[in-house]
């Protein structure tokens, strides 16, 4: 195995010069850097990663905190993080996945990673309106990017879908099809996605002159089932359910069937996230998702930009949602149901 000093001796340079050339330091002449890199490739020299990180004072690693709790959709999440990892690798960075059982453990893991300097930056997922993780990272001056906004989104890099517009337009669509008794099965308002989707549904209902019913659910199938059971006990059933997530909608579909109502026939049903399980529901579940399929690559580019010194306040991106109509929207309305 070729060692650094062997490579330096072959080139007639000091080991320090060769090391700095390989690490990309700007005080090394470009011609010397090119000569060193060419020689390293020719002999198959690979720097010791631990020694290199120690010299540079960097971990060359980004940590993504995987949240616990109900309703975390891992299929889409891991796909996005896989794309993020591939893009980061092009910039010489590794992606570390750090699972946590709950928010408290997530904060502890975050503080430990920062204290040990085991990551140069972080990906924060499933943001809250008032997010203690974001507050702490901003106070510490640690680079990070969020998938989702917070109340302090103007201060930090983020990427998000335009949930407000997506749910407002979904409500408009339902109203245009004649629905007047519409309920929004909402995720908890403490989550930013739940808050924005709720506001969008309410705005669409106001535009349409509809008194929107609201039922809050934990963001999983069990929560959707329980919330719709409660809703159905309060009076005439809605003709349409606009659910904050597909998981909530799947639970809602079960509650409707228990009450003798058929999704897609008696009640229109619509979710968000476009999870694979929704396409196998009977009938297939209408959904929506961020229109851009390369969310992971976007996250990686934001991370590389902030690590490169870009102003975090300029790195916010909100992408449009695309609606995915399926047979669960095909409820048949009677004249009485269409009357406000």
TrEMBL record:
GO molecular function, one term: transcription cis-regulatory region binding
Residue ranges annotated for the HTH lacI-type domain, each copy included: 2-56
Pfam family, one: Peripla_BP_3
PROSITE patterns: HTH_LACI_2 (PS50932)
Alphabetized Gene3D superfamilies for the sequence: 3.40.50.2300, lambda repressor-like DNA-binding domains
Keywords (A to Z) from UniProt: DNA-binding, Transcription, Transcription regulation
Name the record gives this protein: LacI family transcriptional regulator
């Amino acid at each position: 195995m070729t060692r650094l000093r062997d490579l330096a001796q072959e080139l007639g340079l000091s080991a320090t010069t060769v090391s700095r050339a390989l690490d990309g330091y700007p005080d090394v002449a470009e011609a010397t850097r090119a000569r060193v890199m060419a020689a390293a490739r020719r002999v198959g020299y690979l720097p010791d990663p631990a020694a290199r990180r120690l010299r540079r004072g960097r971990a060359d690693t980004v940590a993504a905190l995987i949240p616990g709790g109900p309703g975390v959709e891992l299929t889409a999440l891991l796909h996005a993080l896989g794309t993020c990892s591939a893009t980061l690798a092009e910039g010489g960075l590794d992606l570390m996945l750090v699972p946590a059982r709950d928010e408290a453990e997530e904060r502890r893991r975050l503080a430990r990673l920062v204290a040990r300097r085991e990551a140069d930056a972080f990906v924060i997922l499933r943001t809250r309106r008032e997010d203690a993780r974001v507050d702490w990272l901003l106070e510490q001056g640690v680079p990070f990017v969020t998938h989702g906004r917070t109340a302090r989104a103007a201060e930090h890099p983020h990427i998000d879908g335009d949930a407000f517009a997506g749910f407002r337009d979904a409500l408009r669509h339902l109203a245009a099809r004649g629905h007047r008794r519409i309920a929004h099965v909402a995720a908890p308002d403490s989550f930013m996605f739940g808050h924005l989707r709720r506001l969008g549904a309410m705005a669409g209902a106001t535009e349409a002159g509809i008194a929107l019913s609201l039922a809050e659910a934990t963001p999983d199938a069990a929560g959707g089932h329980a919330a719709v059971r409660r809703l159905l006990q309060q009076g005439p059933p809605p003709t349409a359910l606009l659910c904050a997530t597909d998981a909530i909608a799947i639970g809602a579909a079960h509650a409707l069937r228990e009450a003798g109502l058929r999704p897609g026939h008696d009640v229109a049903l619509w979710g968000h996230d476009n999870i694979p399980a929704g396409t196998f529901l009977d009938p297939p579940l209408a959904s929506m998702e961020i229109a851009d399929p390369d969310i992971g690559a976007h996250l990686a580019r934001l991370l590389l930009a902030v690590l490169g010194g870009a102003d975090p306040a300029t790195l916010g991106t909100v992408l449009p949602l695309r609606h995915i109509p399926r047979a669960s929207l095909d409820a048949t309305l009677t004249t009485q149901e269409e009357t406000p």
